[in-house]
Write a structure and sequence with these properties.
The chain has 165 residues and is an alpha+beta fold. It has seven helices and five strands. The termini are close together.
Amino acid sequence: MSIEQDLARIAEQEADLRFDTFDLDAAWVLGSTLRDMAANRQLAVAIDVHLHSMPVFYAALAGTTPDNAGWVARKRNTALRFFRSSYAIGLELKMQGRTLQDKFALADADYASHGGSFPVWVKGAGCIGAVTVSGLPQRDDHNLVVEALALMLCRDVALLALPLG
């Protein structure tokens, strides 16, 4: 797929993967779902669910390092800053030949435009947090999050996921 096609699919994901309600229990279920998926596939990832500034779920699986926690925070900051997936932001910047630093004056130490963080939306309320995965290639991080959201929302992940890179 081209960048434009990926961005169109991500826009569909961002529009469709929205909750009617989302609370601390739902955040825990989302994090636990991701952790179970990753453990069953033996993926070395860190998983984070935040409701804005409040951490609700965090897990680091075997093979991760402290760097993954930093990537989680930076990708999450991007998703919460723009209310968009960090992958979409990265793809848009790539098309423009820009970076978060030169376009928005956002420091690389605090923000990352790599795939893996996705905003948590509640219909009628807006973006209330983000779910983030770090440890895989960025497209795979993004797809893992989309798969978990699709499972929770009873959506067909085959129709939503980005094709394997």
